[in-house]
């Protein structure tokens, strides 16, 4: 087969899979994938815990040492192969690479399940801004909250909400929105992000303006940007910054590889990676200004979780606004829902595109394969049954399942997938091969330092974090969550990690072993794609 024939074949295949209509559409979609709930609240929570300005030196080092190189890797992999994550890894490392890709996609589906459940709660809270969220006299069926509150309480409202069936309906609505947006592939995704991403920036700027107009709002911003040299010496600051960067950029989920696979092969991926990374980090700083202003004005102490900050602390601050409480409350939760949707569609699209590539099936069928287990899983994470009436832990069955799954699937899968991807690219394909492929179409060329980062430094950083975390788990003496009385559900801390590992490894094994015409075609006609010439 001639080189020109191969090029024509590649172009035809890419058009069949779907393509972005413009570079702007891709940048908005990729930045929307990176910008999510964690950018709005988790970044601020980390910065607050680690001393404000002390967080920034490690954060910027993480951006250039970890975030941008891995982003370039994932973009380059997707654009060069024209395939989603598992098939792209198969191209460079055979079945062992594909197995890593499918395991990552299985973990991404579990993350999607509980991520959509959280969005369902955000939607419920958004609707609650028109109801009793910002009114006194709220109760919840837990012993700490059985008496009517003397004033508005976002915490009590939330725990009352999750014990009702409303979140189940909200979860179905969120899934329906995702499926509608994904129905036409890149075309419908692009239409959605052209509205959603600018709205996120606009609404966040509105919250900044409101926070800075309060007395004391500027003090919060000053704290955020004031360097704290002593804090930089703390190991936890560095660990938090590296973890935040990797999670924030949606790396290790296959989403960025999938989005880049809808681009022409000759796209400048270095430029794309820099744009998306800086847009993501810029939004985090904008969100940090808005949230720190509110935290300082209302003397709120954010706990370390996204859930606590987004559902308790910030709404409680908004409740103390002298005017526009319901409007700004609605604005904030609408922002959470929109930001969450731009991330959830990328997670789902990554798995859908992977199935299309592997099984050569229609998009509607692939969406069905993902939606059925996805909806069931999300509903499980929103189950309202009370299993912890004293609120020693999470209170309901759904929130407990979510907490444990988040600890294992989210806490380990992204870093693990990132680690093995760097190993496969760096040592099996050869980092230099990918670098030359990317450089062939980039104005800003990568130097051999890229090879060193991918082969040695990034795997060392990710591997160290994983080993340290696992060692801490094994030496703690108890499984995560097992120290809470769960009234007949004590099996949860032990079974959830087992369910996650067994199911993802089994699906990865099955799909990797499954031979298809698509894989055979890829092995023969398309191998030239990684050739920089």
Describe how the helices and strands are arranged.
Elements: H1 3-17, H2 23-34, H3 37-49, H4 56-81, H5 85-128, H6 154-161, H7 166-182, H8 186-212, H9 217-225, H10 229-232, H11 235-248, H12 255-260, H13 269-297, H14 306-319, H15 325-359, H16 363-380, H17 397-439, H18 449-475, H19 492-513, H20 517-524
Helix pairs in contact: 2-8, 2-13, 2-15, 3-11, 3-13, 4-11, 4-13, 4-17, 4-18, 5-7, 5-15, 5-16, 5-17, 5-19, 7-15, 7-16, 8-13, 8-15, 9-13, 13-14, 14-15, 15-16, 17-18, 17-19
What is the 3D form? globular
**Which class of secondary structure composition applies to the elements?**
mainly alpha
Structural Rg: 23 Å
Give me the CATH architecture, please: Up-down Bundle
Mean pLDDT: 86
**What share of residues are in beta strands?**
under 5%
CATH T-level topology = Amino acid/polyamine transporter I
CATH first level: which class?
A: Mainly Alpha
Helix content: over 70%
Number of helices: 20
Please tally the β strands and state the result.
0
């Amino acid at each position: 087969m001639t080189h020109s024939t191969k090029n024509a074949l590649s172009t035809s295949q890419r058009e069949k899979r779907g393509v972005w209509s413009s570079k702007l559409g891709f940048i908005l979609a990729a930045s929307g994938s990176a910008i999510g709930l964690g950018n709005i609240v988790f970044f601020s929570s980390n910065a607050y815990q680690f001393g404000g300005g002390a967080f920034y030196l490690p954060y910027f080092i993480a951006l250039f040492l970890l975030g941008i190189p891995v982003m370039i890797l994932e973009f380059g992999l997707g654009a060069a192969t024209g395939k989603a994550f598992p098939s792209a890894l198969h191209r460079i490392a055979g079945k062992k690479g594909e197995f890593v890709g499918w395991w990552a996609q299985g973990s991404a589906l579990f993350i999607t399940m509980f991520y959509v459940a959280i969005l369902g709660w955000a939607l419920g809270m958004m609707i609650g801004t028109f109801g009793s969220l910002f009114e006194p006299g709220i109760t919840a069926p837990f012993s700490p909250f059985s008496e009517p509150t003397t004033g508005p309480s976002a915490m009590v409202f939330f725990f009352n909400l999750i014990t009702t069936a409303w979140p189940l309906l909200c979860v179905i609505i969120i899934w329906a929105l995702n499926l509608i947006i994904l129905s036409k592939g890149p075309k419908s995704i692009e239409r959605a992000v052209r509205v959603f991403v600018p709205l996120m920036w606009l609404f966040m700027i509105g919250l900044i303006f409101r926070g800075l107009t309060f007395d004391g709002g500027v003090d919060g911003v000053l704290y955020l940007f004031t360097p704290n040299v002593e804090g930089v010496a703390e190991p936890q600051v560095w660990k938090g910054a590296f973890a935040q960067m990797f999670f924030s950029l949606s790396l290790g989920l296959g989403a960025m590889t999938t989005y880049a696979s809808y681009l022409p092969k000759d796209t400048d991926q270095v430029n794309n990676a820099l744009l998306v990374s800086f847009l993501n980090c810029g939004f985090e700083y904008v969100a940090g200004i808005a949230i720190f202003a509110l935290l300082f004005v209302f003397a709120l102490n954010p706990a370390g979780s996204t859930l606590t900050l987004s559902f308790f602390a910030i709404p409680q601050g908004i409740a103390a606004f002298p005017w526009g409480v319901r409007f700004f409350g609605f604005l904030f939760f609408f922002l959470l829902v929109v930001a969450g949707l731009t991330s959830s569609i990328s997670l789902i699209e990554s798995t859908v595109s992977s199935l299309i590539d592997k099984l050569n099936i229609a998009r509607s069928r692939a969406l069905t394969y993902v939606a059925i287990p996805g909806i069931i899983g999300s509903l499980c994470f929103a189950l309202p049954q009370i299993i912890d009436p004293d609120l020693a832990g999470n209170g309901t069955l759904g929130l407990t399942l979510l907490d444990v799954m988040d600890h294992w699937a989210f806490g380990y899968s992204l870093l693990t997938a990132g680690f093995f991807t760097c190993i496969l690219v760096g040592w099996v394909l050869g980092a230099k091969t990918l670098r030359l492929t990317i450089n062939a179409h980039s104005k800003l060329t990568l130097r051999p330092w890229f090879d060193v980062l991918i082969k040695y430094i990034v795997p060392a950083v990710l591997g160290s974090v994983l080993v340290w975390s696992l060692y801490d788990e094994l030496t703690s003496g108890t499984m995560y969550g097992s120290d809470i009385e769960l009234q007949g559900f004590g099996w949860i801390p032990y079974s959830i990690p087992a369910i996650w590992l067994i199911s993802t490894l089994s699906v990865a094994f099955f799909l990797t072993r499954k031979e298809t015409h698509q894989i055979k075609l890829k092995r023969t006609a398309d191998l030239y794609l990684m050739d920089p010439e």
